[in-house]
Amino acid sequence: MPPPAPSFLKAAFKLPFNVGVLGASTIGCALAAASSGEPMFIALVPAIEGLFLGVTASLPGFRRQVRARHEADVRAFERTERQQKLERDVAALSASQRACFLELKALTDKTLACYARLPSGGMLVASSEVQLQSLLDMFVKLLGALNGYRRYLDNTSRQQIEKELATLRVELASPPENSAHASVQKLKERRVGLLEERIARFDRAITGRELISHQLAGIEDCIRLLHDQALTLRDPELATLQLDDLAHQLAMTDETMREMESFSAVTEEFAQLEPLTSLPDLQPVR
Predict the structure, then answer these.
(1) Integer Cα distance of 71 and 78 in angstroms
(2) What is d(CA 109, CA 92) in angstroms, rounded to the nearest whole number?
(3) How far is CA 134 from each of CA 175, 236, 256, rounded to the nearest angstrom?
(4) Which whole number is the average pLDDT over 147-158?
(5) What pTM was estimated for this model as a whole?
(6) Is the dihedral of CA 178, 183, 184, 190 positive or negative?
(7) What are residue 4's phi and psi, to 5 degrees?
(8) Cβ neighbours of residue 260 under 8 Å, at least 6 residues apart?
(9) Higher-scoring residue by pLDDT: 180, 94
(10) Domain spans of the chain?
(11) Cα separation, 50 vs 46, whole angstroms
(12) pLDDT in tens, 39-94
């Protein structure tokens, strides 16, 4: 679960200073009440505590500190979520795909180590680490998308679709004269539209599979080139230019992923449609 919204009163209550003072004031007031016989001293404890919490929780500096800690907790939670998702996605890949990913991950780690040895290397590592990790994440996503295209193409027979489509078109070209068959004709026309859309999607899946294959190869080439250049790199500005190329690569793969998500959504919609694999035989009207 993500961290809950920050509570300034709760944060003020958990301050070590408040805990110490609260304990000391409670003991002091209890001793004063016992020695004087006045229970009013005990009532001072919640009053003093309430005043402290109210004043502390309203301080702008204290609020900024609480918000900063909360934002850091949120970022840490999001990093953990992304890492866990990445591990699940990697586990779903084939053995050869996992090996390729791990090899690229090792290369990015070596690249960052080379950057760290440059002047102002810490800043360069901080700016490039996020982009390199995003590139690795995108590599895994594209592998998953490629596997999705492959499954779709393996489970879809274009020849069978074209055969059914040709048969329906022949039947629609010479419709029966009897008006009782009008409903059957409408169903056939609907099937023709669906089959034509399936063929179009089959072609788009082939194109998408080829596009993703080239983008995966491009990401692999990019990571390997960055590593090769980092081994002899001496100027941090050159590394910055290389990171700009990374940003362009990520923009291209983002667009491909959006197309894949759209393809998957429509494919699921088609899968939910009631299949019209056969039509009832109608007896002639006498």
Answers:
(1) 10
(2) 23
(3) 57, 21, 15
(4) 86
(5) 0.65
(6) positive
(7) -70, 165
(8) 145, 148, 149, 208, 212
(9) 94
(10) 1-91, 94-277
(11) 6
(12) 665 666 677 777 777 888 888 888 898 888 888 888 888 888 888 888 899 999 99
What digits encode the pLDDT tens for the residues 263-284? 555 454 444 444 444 434 433 3
Q: Which of 224, 206, 247 is nearest to 100 (CA)?
A: 224
Please give the structure tokens belonging to residue 191: 């099937």
Instruction: Tell me which amino acid residue 153 is.
Output: L
Of 188, 219, 205, 181, residue with least CA distance to 263 = 205
DSSP result, 129-173: HHHHHHHHHHHHHHHHHHHHHHHHHHT--HHHHHHHHHHHHHHHH
d(CA 194, CA 209): 22
Note the pLDDT of residue 9.
Answer: 79
How far does Cα 33 stand from its chain's mean position? 60
Q: Which residues contact 104 (CB under 8 A, 6 or more apart)?
A: 136, 139, 219, 220, 223
* Structure token pair of residue 242: 């290389």
